[in-house]
């Protein structure tokens, strides 16, 4: 495991080489968060109320801020792009000669990048916007602690989804458009743009059971106290089951991809 820790540390330190990029990323995150908050402020103003379907404007502002935090620290396109580049350059074949797991290397690499983005982009952005707009605390201490657990699950699920999509490039011979497809699915079914409690039925019911819901919607719903204690544990278990399913898919695809490389490369 020390090797994977070294990969994570190397990824973290390599990000420090682009310090000027930090300010550009923070500015970009601020624009995104301001835009999301402005949309909900305009929507509530148009309705002429501060509570819609039991959800207050301040809760929606907090949801928008948290949505940026949950999604902002993970970059699916980076993971898919890394696999695509390794496939194009042929570096992927080198991993067949190493006593290491390529999926675990990708995970360690993303963990290092996650830590960097969390400290330099997400936390400063959320702190600034929270001071500007105000941000509700967790509904209860239990919800606050479980939000952290759901956030960790969100990161793991998003990585596994990205790796699964990226490994499909072994059969397409390119990762082009794969990140677009995943991004589109996340935008619609993760709850990033619109929480599921505003979705029409039966779309809301379908979206709540898709794995994308555990990326943004459920962490935020737990933070805001929208789920009972029993539902929190139930959905944590369901999220872990989705993670196990995606993990099995990633490992199976990598095994198939390794065989494909060996056969084609002799």
Account of the protein in words:
The protein has eleven helices and two strands; from the N terminus they run ααββααααααααα. It has helices at residues 2-15, 19-47, 57-72, 76-89, 102-133, 141-167, 169-172, 178-189, 203-209, 217-223, 229-265; strands at 51-52, 55-56. The two termini are 30 Å apart. The mean pLDDT is 83.
Strand line-up in the sheet with most strands: 1-2
Give me the secondary-structure category: mainly alpha
Q: How much β-strand is present in the residues? A: under 5%
Strand/helix succession: HHEEHHHHHHHHH
Protein name: ABC-2 family transporter protein
Keywords: Membrane, Transmembrane, Transmembrane helix
Transmembrane segments: 114-136, 148-173, 180-199, 232-254
InterPro entries: ABC-2_transporter-like
List keywords for this structure.
266 residues; mainly alpha; two-stranded antiparallel sheet
Short description:
It holds the Pfam family ABC2_membrane_6. This protein is mainly alpha-helical and 266 residues long. It is built from 11 helices and 2 strands.
Write the layout of secondary structure elements.
Layout: H1 2-15, H2 19-47, E1 51-52, E2 55-56, H3 57-72, H4 76-89, H5 102-133, H6 141-167, H7 169-172, H8 178-189, H9 203-209, H10 217-223, H11 229-265
Antiparallel strand pairs: 1-2
Helix pairs in contact: 1-5, 2-3, 2-5, 3-5, 3-10, 4-6, 4-8, 6-10, 6-11
């Amino acid at each position: 495991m020390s090797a994977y820790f070294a990969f994570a540390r190397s990824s973290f330190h390599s990000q420090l080489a682009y310090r000027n990029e930090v300010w550009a990323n923070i500015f970009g995150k601020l624009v995104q968060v301001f835009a999301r908050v402005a949309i909900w402020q305009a929507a509530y103003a148009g309705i002429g109320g501060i509570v819609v379907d039991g959800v207050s404007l301040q809760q929606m502002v907090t949801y928008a801020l948290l949505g940026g935090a949950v999604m902002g620290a993970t970059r699916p396109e980076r993971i898919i792009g890394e696999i695509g580049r390794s496939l194009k350059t042929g570096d992927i074949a080198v991993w067949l000669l190493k006593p290491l797991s390529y999926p675990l290397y990708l995970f360690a690499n993303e963990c290092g990048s996650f830590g960097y983005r969390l400290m330099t982009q997400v936390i400063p952005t959320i702190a600034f916007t929270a001071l500007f707009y105000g941000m509700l605390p967790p509904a209860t201490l239990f919800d606050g602690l479980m939000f952290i657990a759901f956030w960790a699950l969100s990161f793991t699920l998003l990585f596994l989804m990205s790796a699964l999509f990226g490994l499909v490039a072994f059969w397409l011979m390119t990762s082009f458009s794969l990140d677009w497809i995943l991004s589109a699915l996340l935008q619609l079914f993760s709850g990033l743009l619109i929480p599921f409690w505003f979705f029409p039925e039966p779309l809301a019911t379908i979206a709540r059971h898709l794995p994308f819901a555990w990326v943004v919607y459920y962490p935020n719903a737990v933070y805001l106290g929208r789920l009972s204690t029993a539902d929190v544990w139930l959905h944590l278990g369901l999220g872990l089951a989705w993670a196990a399913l995606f993990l099995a898919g990633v490992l199976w695809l990598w095994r198939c991809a390794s065989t494909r490389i060996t056969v084609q490369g002799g």
